[in-house]
Amino acid sequence: MYSAPRGTHDILPEEWPYWRHVISCAHETAALFGFEQIDTPIFETTSLYIRGVGEGTDIVDKEMYSFQDKGGEEITLRPEFTAGVMRAYLEHGMKVRPQPVKLYSIGPIFRFERPQAGRYRQHHQFNVEVIGDQDPAVDAEVISLAWHFFERLRFRGLTLHLNSTGCPRCRPAYLEELVAYYRQHTDVICDDCKRRLARNPLRVLDCKNEQCQPVIAGAPRIMDHLCQECADHFAQLRVYLDALDLPYELNHRLVRGLDYYTKTVFEIYAQGIGAQNAVCGGGRYDGLIEQLGGPPTPGIGFGSGIERQILTMKEQGIEPPPLPKPEIFVGHVGDKPRIAAFELATLLRKEGLATLFSFGQRSLKAQLRAANRAGALYAVIVGEDELAAGVLTVRDLTAQTQETVAREEIVSWLRDRLAASRPEGESRR
Ligand code: HAM
Fold first, then answer.
1. By CB neighbour count within 10 A (0-12 exposed, 13-18 middle, 19+ buried), where does 6 fall?
2. Which residue in 92, 132, 228, 304 has the fewest CB atoms around it within 10 Å?
3. Distance 323 CA to ligand 1 centre (A)
4. 1-54 pLDDT, tens per residue?
5. How many whole angstroms separate alpha carbon 289 and alpha carbon 267?
6. Dist. CA 236 → ligand 1 center (Å)
């Protein structure tokens, strides 16, 4: 028997209330902040990610699903949204639109990772990007959007970690100092860090290995090496966050796993799914568009894993609203009534009333049991007598009472009853 590939999941019907809830919260939050939706292809030319995300990152070196298609093109399943969205910004000349351009996306992401709780080979992200403005207020708006989204989901125990990774002006000198410091400790650091030192030194700060922790604790901090522009930008961002009363922790070790970041980087954690599992990660990438062949254009954004949002909901006991189910069940007794019942079910659906039709030729009792199991509120029964008299028997499955309703009045009868059974302001169950 086949099973879903390792690290991937079917989203079963019982999971969909969670998915629908987080996705609708994402749309609502994006709208509230004035973001527009963009969908880019699930695959792009491989070199886009090599240039965008960067050689020497785990994503590019180890995690991409890359292949040659039948036309000989090098293709990669998107391992993140940002590079593709920047490609679209450039390709469609979005520079001429009022800046900044504020875009969001929702969809699947593919990374060949070691699967574990909260880490999958196919996951889904709610991703947000603001392109074309370097005002620190933009950084604050993006962070506050993420925060608002999680508050809307009613998450508890949120922590925001914040850092600045500098820019091409100040970072090289810092990296030199960091490498020089690490050179004095090569006897104790792990093999991964030795490799990182050569390929992507900033990442040594992110190492989880026990033996490296004391070395990290004593390492020089980028915050002490920022140029004036980066320091001012960070200070202003903090003024905005303080004004919003948005609590944050300065985390000197927060460096993120993608190469394009400059200045602000941040991650958000939620109580319940473990400190390693960020529900959101992002930052500023002022050099990325240039890196991809465009004019110098600043940008900032974040990605938030939908599976991790749902794990958080479950860990914190947050129930999603139930999805609407058909409230009407159409049953029948006899051959001619079955056809009439089928017509009736179709008519009710055309009138916007979600309806289940009773398949097969079961006893009335079995049909009513099925109606109850499906959670319907009313069973409409067509039998020989009803057909002859132009009426329908309607059973209220909650009150367990029965009435006869004229065929031509059934739509308005059901509408009235369903409207009366709903709490005020609720359009559907
Ligand atoms: P990232 O930190 O690699 O950033 O991913 C963003 C979020 O996606 C993570 O915080 C986590 O919630 C979720 N996530 C990542 N990998 C997995 C996985 N294997 N399984 C489940 N969830 C996962 C980015 O992708 C950047 N493109 C974000 C960004 C947008 N930066 C600027 N703009």
1. exposed
2. 228
3. 28
4. 999 999 999 999 999 999 999 999 999 999 999 999 999 999 999 999 999 999
5. 22
6. 26
Nearest to 142 by CA among 291, 13, 268, 4: 268
Atom of ligand 1 nearest to the CA of 119: 20
**Among all chains, which residue has been given the structure tokens 């620190």?**
136
Residue 188 has a pLDDT of 92
Q: What is the pLDDT, as a whole number, of residue 424?
A: 66
Question: What's the 242 CA to ligand 1 centre distance in angstroms?
Answer: 26
CA-nearest residue for atom 11, ligand 1, is: 305
> For a substitution probing ligand 1, which of 269, 292, 302, 307 has the most ligand atoms within 8 Å of its CB?
302
Band of pLDDT at residue 427, cut at 50, 70 and 90: low
Q: How far is the CA of 74 from the centre of ligand 1 (A)?
A: 23
| d(C-alpha 391, C-alpha 379), whole Å | 14
Residue identified by tokens 């992401």 is 109
Closest atom of ligand 1 to CA, residue 129: 33
In angstroms, the CA 162 to CA 143 distance is 10
Ligand 1 binding pocket (C-beta < 6 A) is 80-82, 111, 113, 118-120, 123, 125, 127, 129, 257-258, 278-283, 285, 301-305, 307-308
Query: From the CA of 259, how far away is ligand 1's center (Å)?
Result: 13
Examine the pLDDT at 428 and tell me if it is beyond 60: no
Residues in the chain: 429
22-45 per-residue burial string, b: 16 or more CB within 10 A, e: under 16 = bbebbeebbeebebeebebeebbe
The predicted-structure confidence for 364-412, as pLDDT tens digits, reads as follows 999 999 999 999 999 999 999 999 999 999 999 999 999 999 999 999 9
Task: Report the chain's mean pLDDT, rounded to a whole number.
Answer: 95
